[in-house]
């Protein structure tokens, strides 16, 4: 279990987290074969989480990515083009923010458009 301070979803505010220089040396490694996300700080493993990388139709891309932004209480743009082919379409539904949103209460956008790290089930 991660060592995370307790919080109430009601106390969260939609927006973007500011960069924290204390985390500049952290590396996020995603093992798609073993299905784990590992976080290293200066070479030491500090966290490990089970994951579901990508989908059957659009598996997680293999590459080194940079986290370019972290959004709390994000809305979700349900776009079949992105979900099935990785290409934005003109037809989409906007789902409201909240714990039952498909991406959950936090989205870490990566340096590839439409790809991010999130929790996809209610907290």
Structure characteristics:
L,D-transpeptidase catalytic domain-like; three-stranded antiparallel beta sheet; about 120 residues; four-stranded antiparallel beta sheet; mainly beta; about 5% helix
Describe the structure.
There is one protein chain. The chain is mainly beta. The chain has a single domain (9-118), classed as Beta Barrel (L,D-transpeptidase catalytic domain-like). The chain is 5% helix and 33% strand. The chain has one helix at residues 80-85; strands spanning 15-16, 26-31, 36-41, 44-50, 67-72, 76-78, 93-95, 106-110, 116-118. A 4-stranded antiparallel beta sheet has the order 1-5-8-9, with no helix packed on it. A 3-stranded antiparallel beta sheet has the order 2-3-4, with no helix packed on it. Strands 6-7 form a two-stranded antiparallel sheet. The model has no long low-confidence stretch (mean pLDDT 83).
Quick structural gist:
With 123 residues, the chain is mainly β.
Element-by-element helix/strand order: EEEEEEHEEE
Task: Give me the Rg, rounded.
Answer: 15 Å
CATH top level class name? Mainly Beta
Order of strands, main sheet, comes to 1-5-8-9
Shape label: globular
Helical fraction: under 10%
The total domain count is: 1
CATH structural fold name: L,D-transpeptidase catalytic domain-like
User: pLDDT below 50 for ≥5 consecutive residues: which ranges?
Assistant: none
Most strands sheet: 4 strands, antiparallel
Question: What topology does this entry show?
Answer:
Layout: E1 15-16, E2 26-31, E3 36-41, E4 44-50, E5 67-72, E6 76-78, H1 80-85, E7 93-95, E8 106-110, E9 116-118
Antiparallel strand pairs: 1-5, 2-3, 3-4, 5-8, 6-7, 8-9
């Amino acid at each position: 279990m991660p060592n995370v301070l307790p919080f109430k979803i009601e106390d969260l505010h939609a927006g973007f987290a500011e960069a924290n220089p204390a985390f500049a040396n952290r590396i996020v490694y995603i093992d798609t074969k073993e299905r784990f996300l590992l976080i290293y700080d200066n070479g030491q493993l500090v966290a490990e989480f089970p994951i579901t990388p990508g989908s059957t139709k659009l598996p997680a891309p293999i590459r080194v990515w940079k986290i370019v932004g972290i959004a709390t209480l994000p809305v979700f743009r349900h776009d079949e083009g992105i979900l099935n082919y990785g290409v934005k379409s003109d037809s989409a539904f906007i789902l409201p923010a909240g714990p039952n949103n498909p991406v959950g209460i936090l989205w870490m956008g990566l340096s590839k458009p439409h790809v991010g790290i999130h929790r996809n089930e209610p907290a």
